[in-house]
Design goal:
With 314 residues, this protein is of the alpha/beta class. It is built from nine helices and 14 strands. The chain has helices at 16-33, 63-71, 91-100, 137-140, 162-167, 173-180, 215-230, 270-285, 295-301; strands at residues 3-9, 41-45, 75-80, 108-110, 119-123, 132-136, 146-150, 152-154, 158-160, 236-241, 244-245, 257-259, 263-267, 309-313. The chain has an eight-stranded mixed sheet with strand order 4-3-2-7-10-13-1-14, with helices on both faces. The protein has a two-stranded antiparallel ribbon with strand order 5-6. The protein has a two-stranded antiparallel sheet with strand order 8-9. Helix 3 (91-100) links the parallel strand 3 (75-80) and strand 4. It is globular, with a radius of gyration of 18 Å. It starts with a strand and ends with a strand.
């Protein structure tokens, strides 16, 4: 099935105010063109950004959109999940990071509770790695979510966008542990990142092949978790292909930009929107921008989304 993906070029996003206006513009275009009805309480799934990271999508980017929702008598709120380990792995510390990073204009909730173990086992079909996935309780029962994803590189999956936002961002802290870990970890414990890599940080990490999944197998596991995250619902996806770095917003240090800004994309299909980002960047750069580890074909095969899309420039 052909999916519409809407694209706003970075040439129109010359400063933070223009970026905020562009975010609202592409959102309204998607909602109006696809004739979407918005629920009255709308969770906005974001990435809070690891402390020390400087390239995560800032809350000011969402300001015009949030004002628009409030004018429509819709009550938006930020929603996040705890990480498997580290600073953002508990509710109180994660909420503090959200506050420190400026996500204070609307309420913020942590979907998997105090310690990352508040989840629902969601069954999936067609997966070869999982039969059930642990999706954060506060996201497992949603009929509609506005998923905001920063499109950039990722050290374990090649790149990150909407698929990874679903597959890791919607998983509980414990679910993230199970998605990553090759070894059996007691149900009350989390992954130990000190055992996962021979190099602590940065794009030169060498993974412990006996302890964690990475590359194609991990990408497939993320796609299966993404399938559980959507649980048959049609969510709204906005991808921010700006501040494109080699690694994700979980990296707690400043990272250099590796590509010029591409722009904003919007769709109701997580596979199509990520593929459109990838294809546009590949065409512009004249090379494959990241390793995709076959994620698009696999995600399509298990029923997560479509490989075929129509790009609509606005």
């Amino acid at each position: 099935m052909m999916t519409n993906v809407y694209f706003l070029s970075a040439k129109k996003l010359t400063n933070p105010d223009a970026l905020a206006a562009g975010t609202l513009q592409i959102f309204k275009k998607l909602v109006e063109s696809e004739q979407l009805s918005l629920q009255k309480n709308l969770p906005i799934k974001i990435h809070s950004g690891e402390p020390g990271n400087t390239t995560f999508t800032r809350p000011q980017t969402y300001s015009d959109l949030i004002d628009h929702l409030l004018d429509q008598e819709i009550k938006p709120y930020y929603i996040e999940t705890n990480t498997a380990a580290g600073i953002r792995s508990t509710e109180d510390k994660h909420l503090q990071v959200l506050k420190d990073h400026g996500f204070t204009d609307i309420p913020a909730k942590i979907a998997d509770g105090e310690d990352g173990f508040d989840h629902v086992e969601v069954s999936i079909r067609n997966g070869k790695h999982f039969k059930t996935c642990k999706i954060a309780a506060g996201l497992s029962d949603q009929n509609q979510v506005l998923a905001m994803s920063h499109f950039k590189g990722h050290i374990m999956t090649g790149f990150g966008g909407a698929i990874k936002q679903l597959g890791i961002g919607f998983a509980s802290g414990r679910g993230k542990t199970e998605a990553h870990a090759k070894v059996e970890i007691p149900v009350t414990e989390r992954i130990d990142w000190a055992k996962a890599s021979q190099v602590p940080t940065g794009s030169s990490q060498i993974w412990n092949d006996d302890y964690v999944y990475y590359g194609q197998t991990f990408a497939e596991r993320v796609a299966e978790y993404a399938l559980a995250a959507v649980h048959g619902q049609k969510y709204i996806y906005l991808n921010f292909a700006i501040n494109i770095t080699a690694n994700c917003d979980c990296d707690g240090e400043p990272m250099p930009l590796i590509y010029d800004d591409l722009g904003l994309l919007a769709s109701t299909d997580p596979v199509a929107i990520d593929k459109a980002c990838f294809d546009l960047l590949e065409k512009r750069e004249g090379k494959r921008p990241f390793n995709d580890y076959g994620i698009f074909a696999y995600a399509n095969r298990i029923g997560l989304g479509s490989l075929e899309y129509q790009l609509i420039r606005i």
